[in-house]
Amino acid sequence: MSTKKLPIASDGSAAFARTVLGNGVRVVTETIPSVRSTSVGAWVMAGSRDEPARLSGISHLIEHMVFKGTRRRRMHHIAQRLESVGGYLDAFTGKEYTCYYARALDEHTDRALDTVCDLILSPSFPEKALDKEKDVVLEEMKMYDDAPEDLIFDHFDSVAYHGHALARPVIGYPDTVRGIQRSDLISFVEEAYAPNRVVVAVAGNVTHERVVELVERAFADSRRPNKAPRRRRAAKYKPADRTAVKPISQAHLVVGTRGPGARDAGRVPLVVLNTILGGGMSSRLNQNIRERYGYCYHIYSFLNFHTDSGDVGVYMGTDAAKVDRARKLILTELDRLCQKEVSHRTLSRAKTQVKGSIMLGLEAMSNRMMRLGRQELIYEQYFTLDQVMDEVDAVTAEDVREVACSVLGPDRLSIVVLRPTA
What we know:
Elements: E1 3-11, E2 14-21, E3 26-31, E4 37-44, H1 58-65, H2 75-83, E5 88-93, E6 98-105, H3 109-121, H4 127-145, H5 148-160, H6 174-179, H7 182-192, E7 198-204, H8 208-219, E8 241-246, E9 251-259, H9 267-278, H10 284-291, E10 296-305, E11 310-318, H11 323-339, H12 344-361, H13 365-379, H14 385-393, H15 397-407, E12 414-420
Parallel strand pairs: 3-7, 8-12
Antiparallel strand pairs: 1-2, 2-3, 4-6, 4-7, 5-6, 9-11, 9-12, 10-11
């Protein structure tokens, strides 16, 4: 299997390297000799936006089912393989990708890599386990349905991405999950888990050459053909208001809109804006709506980036009688960002907060691995910490005001409310 290796880049005490295997699998590593652990992730460019409507939730169900056995290992052997040496193994599914990851001592890196690669390459999808796991997923749906702070974001997504797969919940719907057959799992994996849609990311005390060797060995017998992602762009956004009722004690409110994608130039100023607006206890939302008026216990702004689109807004939980007043206060804060540039002091604090959060997050090998995997999947390149810091430092008050006006204008906002049953 021929490979293509890119030059190693230095990021302080870490060294980044990238190799593209002959079959299209991308291997990215960040070598940090000062630690005694490694974090390993097998990323697949397949998520809920890649599913046909009738199979909504299949990516998430596959994530569950791969742990039920592979052609090489039974379910309990998979569970024990990392735990028996003090590590752990897990996975998650998103709108655009699925990640299977492990953490272990550096001496067990081979075991961790072999295990996560086995999960994506040779799941057996035992028929007897499928119906049981569907029941598990249905219980997971009920759990989310009982969590109004999660549920309201499903409502918001259905408004923000109306008519598109991004509008659907990652977990799917009861009817679609019940209808998924073993043959559907096999067909979906055969296409969506193609080698050119896989990134293997490793961070910690490893050598790039050894990781490449192990990944090449794992994929040596794979015969899956490469497939290009066929993703439909999100439809044109139309603001809308939606109110739903549920037997809960507190009302939940989202004021939000569609925003730029991960590759958009306005992404970094929006990150700084998000920090000023609702990023922590010192944010404007928390100080003005919680501390000044006492309208809520929990309020924050959110920001999600997909490859070609995104969404941004404010979440708040409050008494049902205060929803209208709270909404007006939120709209006032959004308008304030558009009408007046933030002060130099506010901007400086926000940028320092953003940079500090990024740097503190990189103390953990798992976060470094997540950063590696996401960068490769979304950008197909690596950004050093210095590059990221420079991008944040370059944001001006005018940049923040411009992105506020272009994204958070009153004519672009959708309002979603989840009210208690009367």
